[in-house]
Write a structure and sequence with these properties.
Keywords: Activator, DNA-binding, Repressor, Sporulation, Transcription, Transcription regulation. Residues 5-50 form the SpoVT-AbrB domain. This protein is an alpha+beta fold. The chain has two helices and four strands. The protein has two domains: 1-48, Pemi-like Protein 1, Chain: D (Ribbon); 50-93, no CATH class. The strands form two sheets. It has a two-stranded antiparallel ribbon. A two-stranded antiparallel sheet has the order 3-4. A hairpin with a 2-residue loop joins β1 (34-39) and β2. The radius of gyration is 18 Å and the shape is elongated. The relative contact order is 0.10.
């Protein structure tokens, strides 16, 4: 885990401010949802993405396909982009 050197105090309502530098770096906008996990003695915040969100286009749809045991979610448009990139990669290696 990488330390940022930033320290924030918890206020009386249990809130912690995430510094703007981190929000910009991690593309977290105002009103974005965050998932909260506990890992041993750590609290982990992760930008929330619904289950069927395409990892290329960000489109959420039940028609998106789940590949590699759910590790990859693609919309039809996202799949086309991946295929084009893979074809280019394969042609370069020949």
């Amino acid at each position: 885990m990488k330390s940022t050197g930033i320290v924030r105090k918890v206020d009386e309502l249990g809130r912690v401010v995430i510094p703007i530098e981190l929000r910009r770096t991690l593309d977290i906008a105002e009103k974005d949802a965050l998932e909260i996990y506990v890992d041993d003695d750590r609290i982990v915040l992760k930008k929330y993405k619904p289950n069927m969100t395409c990892q290329v286009t960000g489109e959420v749809s039940d028609s998106n396909v789940s590949l590699a045991d759910g590790k990859i979610i693609l919309s039809p448009e996202g799949a086309k982009e991946v295929i084009q990139e893979l074809e280019g990669f394969i042609s370069k290696s020949d």
